[in-house]
Design brief:
By secondary structure, the chain is of the alpha+beta class. It is built from ten helices and twelve strands.
Length: 322
């Protein structure tokens, strides 16, 4: 990437963004530029669509509830059905993939009850049954995206999910304020505090606590990989014996090129796969070769699998918990 400042902001600040009263000044100090230059560049990257926001990525199911969902839609009706699904604010990602189940989307809500209500409403509006695939176990869900081919960070330890604790009223208001990301002002946390109705230090302490507890997976620049040239996006799914899932999941999670890895339930007879991972690349051939290599390295050549490449991106926004 020709622009060194742009590259540094996109690559180096996807996590561990300064949680201090003047974070953009701190970033500027590290990069050796003026604070105003950093703010203007981030605004420019957001306008160009290269980033969606600067802010938190919340861990799935630690607040609220969410699920991956899929539909099998006749190809001639896909565009209309996708737009119907997009109208629901609970839907934050919606993609066409190469498969009989050709519409894949993520639904997020403030509680399990609201999630199920949203799924029912989407199903009724779209006119097709939903394949519901909630997260069972994570092996690697960081959502950072290394742009320079550097070493991948170690994957987190696999963890089964416990029901989320209810948010206090102040926390609920803070989640709402954070959904759009940090405002690009000199004291962004002070702006958030005014919106929430508390002190700046309380906002910072709450965010730090959520990061320490794993409720926030990372806090920083959220890039849009498609706009950065990574347009070959494949979901690789396997049917792994239950007693082997954790071993295989951890191996895939630490493999080069794997950006997400998680366990979801089988839904028989329609969906026999229980281990999912995502691989992004700049060219389809590159991703296909990496998948062949991965399956050979980890000894998965005998395991049933499918590769679902993305085609149309119908929607990509941050999750809406409140």
């Amino acid at each position: 990437m020709a622009d060194t400042l742009e590259f540094q902001l996109l690559n180096d600040f996807q996590r561990d963004f300064p949680l201090c009263p003047a974070p953009f000044a701190e970033v500027a100090s590290r990069l050796g530029v003026a604070e105003g230059v950093v703010i203007r560049e981030l605004e420019h990257l957001r306008r160009e669509g290269k980033i969606s926001r600067v802010g938190p990525v919340f861990a799935p199911k630690r607040i609220g509830a969410s699920t991956l969902a899929a539909m099998a839609v006749p190809p001639e009706k896909l565009e209309v059905v996708a737009q119907t699904v997009n109208r629901f604010p609970e839907v934050n990602h919606n993609y066409e993939r190469e498969h009989r189940y050709n519409l894949w989307f993520v639904v997020t809500a403030g509680s399990e009850g609201r999630l199920q209500a949203a799924l029912g409403a989407i199903e009724q509006a779209a006119g097709y049954p939903i394949l519901r695939l909630p997260l069972v176990q994570e092996f690697h869900i960081d959502l950072g995206f290394c742009l320079n081919g550097g070493e991948k960070r170690p994957a987190p330890v696999a963890r089964a999910f416990t029901p989320p604790r209810p948010l206090e009223e102040l926390e609920r208001r803070l989640v709402m304020a954070l959904q759009e990301g940090l405002p690009f002002f000199i004291r962004p946390f002070q702006v958030l505090a005014q919106r929430v109705g508390c002190e700046e230090i309380e906002v910072l302490e709450r965010i730090r606590r959520w990061c320490d507890e794993g409720i926030i997976k990372r806090f920083g620049v959220v890039v849009r990989h498609h706009e950065l040239g990574y347009r070959a996006n494949a979901m690789l799914v396997h049917d792994i014996p239950d007693e082997e899932v954790e071993r295989v999941g951890n191996a895939l999670a630490q493999a080069e090129g794997v950006t997400l890895c998680y366990r979801r339930p089988r839904v028989l007879p329609d969906w026999p796969y229980n281990l999912f991972c995502m691989i992004h690349g700049q060219a389809r051939e590159e991703v296909e070769a990496r998948i062949v290599s991965l399956r050979r390295e980890i000894g998965l050549e005998a395991c049933p699998h499918e590769v679902l490449f993305s085609r149309t991106r119908f929607k990509q926004t941050g999750a809406r918990y409140a």
